[in-house]
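Example 3.2
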Amino acid sequence: MDYLHEGLVKLNFSTETIPAIENNLKKYVNELILFNSAYDLVGAETTDEIVIRHILDSLSAYHIIRKLVDEKKANGASELCIADIGSGGGLPGIPLAICMEDVHFRLIERMSKRCLFLENCVAILGLTNVKVENIELERVPQESIDISVFRAFRPLEYKMTKRLIRVLKHGGYLAAYKAREEKIIEEMSKISELIPEYQRIPLDVPYLTDKGEYERNLVLVQRP
């Protein structure tokens, strides 16, 4: 089975856009496979594992994030910036950037060797809307990001969450890919003083969550 193509269909990408998206995603998967052992990029080895657990998982929130972008544009925002914090191997930033050519992406990663991998991917994929930044979160300018996305990131705790909120523009969003609901409730209860309200949006990841063995959610937090 072609999990990538069928997964994009299941995620409701239009038939007109799928060929170009699929082509670049395949190139990206090839790079992940080629450099994974050297750079420790993803916790998967086969092409199918990478496609399902990482590519389709990253894109499962695409329509949610796309809606946030469109709403901001409708309200007059221009030159929107989405930052992938702790980008690692470029997930979810690169798959999202492939699908959103009209939005500027910043891949923020503190490890130099992973930044080399990211820069190589950006060049090979011709992603003119992506910039790789070899810096730590503490050095990101305050109020410089419209939407921050992160995946496979450490649990949200008070100090880190405060830093994440500071780099957001007012009205901006944190979009955190998370797993089980009970873990989210426990995690967010510990920072309720900082984040009294948040949205938990269930994510359907083709060939992963539909088996009933996994649970994926997106946690959305808006900065006032």
